């Protein structure tokens, strides 16, 4: 390979005794790139040459000055020396030839030395291997990852082009570095590093590193399919929009990810409803019972894998029945002339309608009811009623009263038998807490003793206070009116209750009990008759069934014989085809089927099961065997021979 260059002449006249002539290099050696194993020629042409030529490599001028160069068999100085042509020819170029060359013309008496430009000879060695590998341990969506493309054993370094599905990669960061394959080696390892921000769309795409080199006619490529690990993609594919309290609804969440999710969690607000393991189809159903506490909260489906956490959320709207958050106290005490304010705070979705009633009559609506100046006519029972669509109405009541002495409920008379025990109860409205309570009879205050037992005031669950009096061993002197007295901070009130003798109803009770016993007896007798009739019917059906079986068998055996000796046989039965009945030949004639049924009936208490037809003794009538009426007594051992 010959490298051509431009010729230049630069003549300069030197004054003095030495160097009167100027020897000038007019054709300079040029830098060149040569393939390994080829031949290259570095030109050096001198004008007005007086001195000898010497070629130097990497600053060492040890190649010799004579032609040929005996100690360097692959090196040769070629050209017409007389014409000043002193080119260097290198055969079978190897890596040892790679370096910086210079042509030098030595000094003489007539001329000074001449030095050529430096020429860089690069031996081209293509890479023999290209690797593509990941720097990052995993490719995760929305995070950066790096890949290295490495070209080995090249000279000089290679160049790289990155592609995504055959299209050049854009908007990425690419760096390049090189290093010697070994210490003092001229072969290089070149590394191109690409930094990419991963996304789901890159999953499954092919990334290619294309390596080019001056010694290569066709680039070397290395490819890899990108596997992007991405956070779960979560979707709610079944989400009812309108929920009703205490009803069951199904939600369904779908989660797709790489790698597969490790767990899926359903939450309402901050409360975890369920934890689920991965499923094959990626669907995760949730059975939800809607409650009022879920209203306006977020139902969240959260999926986790090694790449991260994702979720899908829906706001729950729950329609639920009215429920009181706060209501007035059962009793509201207020003085005439004061302002009255009653409030009912109702929780419902949508908002419930609220009406206020006084003694059954509508007096207002809304959350609050107010009276700026209370009069005597404003006292009474107030009710707050909340309603919403088809939901059940709810209500709360308060009794508006003026402060005063205890208000006692009327007490009905108490009936008691003589020599028995009775309990008298006295109930007080719970508007003001009582301070004392006692009982009186015939103007005498009663206290607990062998005769009486008084129970102090206690709070009952029906917004009342209760005190009671127990009377033991009642006699005629204990009958009469008793008085219950109750005291509070505003005064004392009392109510009367009468203790009366209970009339005797012993005869009426006896009559009632007798009628009940009689009715039960009749029922049991009817049940007995029914069971007896059912048993007879069952027996009749069983008998008919057996008769049919016997008759069917006898039809297949139209005649039978009896015998007492091997050669003595007497006809036993004859089958009448016209009537379909098999009868005995011995008098009197007997229907064999009826005989068998009779025999079975007589023997049912002694035999564990009906006798087989083939071994059946003949029928009985008046305890005498029919078959032996015409036979001798010594023939009683005869048997039926089928």
Automatic annotation (TrEMBL):
Question: Where found, per UniProt?
Answer: Membrane
Q: Which residue ranges does the record assign to the Ig-like domain?
A: 23-122, 127-227, 232-317, 322-402, 406-500
GO function term, MF aspect, one: cell adhesion molecule binding
Tell me the GO BP annotations in alphabetical order: cell-cell adhesion
Q: Name the principal localization, coarsely classed.
A: membrane
Question: Would you tell me the Gene Ontology cellular component terms?
Answer: cell-cell junction; plasma membrane
The keyword Mitochondrion is annotated on this UniProt entry: no
| Gene3D superfamilies linked | Immunoglobulins (2.60.40.10)
Which Pfam families has this protein been placed in? C2-set_2, Ig_2, Ig_3
Membrane topology term reads: Single-pass type I membrane protein
Residue ranges annotated as transmembrane are 505-531
Which UniProt keywords are present, listed alphabetically? Answer: Disulfide bond, Glycoprotein, Immunoglobulin domain, Membrane, Transmembrane, Transmembrane helix
Q: PANTHER family of this UniProt entry?
A: IRREGULAR CHIASM C-ROUGHEST PROTEIN-RELATED (PTHR11640:SF31), NEPHRIN (PTHR11640)
Which protein is depicted?
Ig-like domain-containing protein
